[in-house]
Hints:
By secondary structure, this protein is mainly alpha-helical. It has a domain at 1-87: Ankyrin repeat-containing domain (Serine Threonine Protein Phosphatase 5, Tetratricopeptide repeat, Alpha Horseshoe), CATH 1.25.40.20. The protein contains 19 helices and no strands. It has helices at 3-10, 17-20, 27-34, 37-45, 63-67, 74-83, 90-98, 102-110, 121-130, 139-144, 155-160, 163-170, 180-190, 195-202, 207-217, 221-224, 227-231, 237-243, 246-251. The longest helix is centred in the last third of the chain and has 11 residues, at 180-190. The chain is elongated, with a radius of gyration of 21 Å.
Amino acid sequence: xxxxxILDLLIPLTSRVCDTGLDxxxxxxxxxxxxxxxxxxxxxxxxxxxxxxxCLVFGFSSPLxxxxxxxxxxxxxxxxxxxxxxxxxxxxLAYCLKYEKFSxxxxxxxxxxxxxxxxxxxxxxxxxxxxxxxxKEWLPSLLLAGFDPLNLLCNSWIEAxxxxxxxxxxxxxxxxxxxxxxxxxxxxRASNSSWALRQHIAAVPSLTHLCRLEIRSSLKPEHLRSxxxxxxxxxxxxxxxxxxxxxxxxxxxxxxxxxxxxxEITETI
Length: 269
């Protein structure tokens, strides 16, 4: 008798308190841990939550976080969890950076992963700093999706990242009107940095840039994630491109990155 046949017999006999109960361990974790995609789908089809509960036994906050440990089965497991409505959060984005799964990072953004009211900002920034050399693969997507760059402009980010990465981050701000604490950290960093960073910080943002920030701040998060929505705004085409930071992306040689379409993510993307 295979795993699924045994599981089919056990599900009706198992107390559902383990599904999301505090201090319990959902069988969803066991399915993910074992890489048993068929068992995982059976559990979710029978109503088990894809989010389960925080699991101290395994040391993960969710089954999706655990999935990043499963190299071979990762994409299949993630597809199943997404199919059954797993709730995305910043830890999942952080794990994408930790394991350098940048295409999945961009897909999670497209699927509406919340970008405000984070509880794990420090953990995200720690992983972001470690992959800042590859910022072109994930940071543009994050900032264009509406993430507040002030959340990045902490002491650890300002001190650790390259001048290019820091300048790119500042492009999504009015860098002459930053909070005093941030301005002080930037000034300290600039004093020991390249001429390019010092020049950027000293420059006055153009009126068009300030208008871009104002227009983007008025858009809903789901609209910022949609290039097609921005391109349908009653504005000249050149302004559509400007709102999408086309000239900044071009200047920083950010490549056009593949965006996973709705459906299954695959290892080839």
